[in-house]
Amino acid sequence: MKRILVSSAIAILMVVLVACGGKPKPNDYDWKVASFEATDQDGQPFNTEQMKGKVWLVNFAFTSCNTVCPPMTFNLTQIQDKLKENGIQDIHILSFSVDPSIDSPEKIKKFLGKYKADTTHWRFVTGYDQAAIESYSRETFKSHVQKVDGDDQVNHPTSIFLVDQEGTVLTRYNGLEPQEDKIIEDVKSLLD
């Protein structure tokens, strides 16, 4: 009898969850996005306060990268297109330059143009010093950024991070081989 009652309770709970959307929100992390000020590809000021109330995909890249940034940026444009195909227009992308001494807004704008990125909701920011982005990446996104003296390349994460409307990093995806369906499902779970 007790087993039947427990089974019935579980079944009712599942019906309620499915009826309410029921898709669990990703919760791998609970990292708060710290305040940060920068300049975007249009030369406009950007502050992480502008992220509040919006869902963001966040990554780290730089315009003179000759390895992982081109495919990662292309992948983000594909994700952006797939989200639109699924009726999700209000998703935002934020790319942090990990080489701010080289990446001017003009260079960034040209870089994004090569990938035909829709910059309506995409901010690629610069305008801070190297120490600031290295510290910010480590403290907020638990990721390593390092510019090595004498090298024109910068070590940085290849993850795409999902940030919710409250400014919390919830999970990350492989930016080189992103699971687009999983990203769409996770974004939908935040917007439902």
Automatic annotation (TrEMBL):
Stretch forming the signal peptide: 1-21
Q: Which domain of life is it from?
A: Bacteria
List the coiled-coil residues: none
Q: Which PROSITE patterns match?
A: PROKAR_LIPOPROTEIN, THIOREDOXIN_2
List UniProt keywords, sorted A-Z.
Answer: Copper, Signal
Question: What residue ranges are annotated as transmembrane?
Answer: none
Which InterPro entries does the record cross-reference, listed alphabetically?
SCO1/SenC, Thioredoxin-like_sf, Thioredoxin_domain
Q: Where is the Thioredoxin domain?
A: 27-192
Family, as annotated: Belongs to the SCO1/2 family.
- The name this protein carries in UniProt is SCO family protein
Q: Which organism is it from?
A: Paenibacillus alvei (Bacillus alvei)
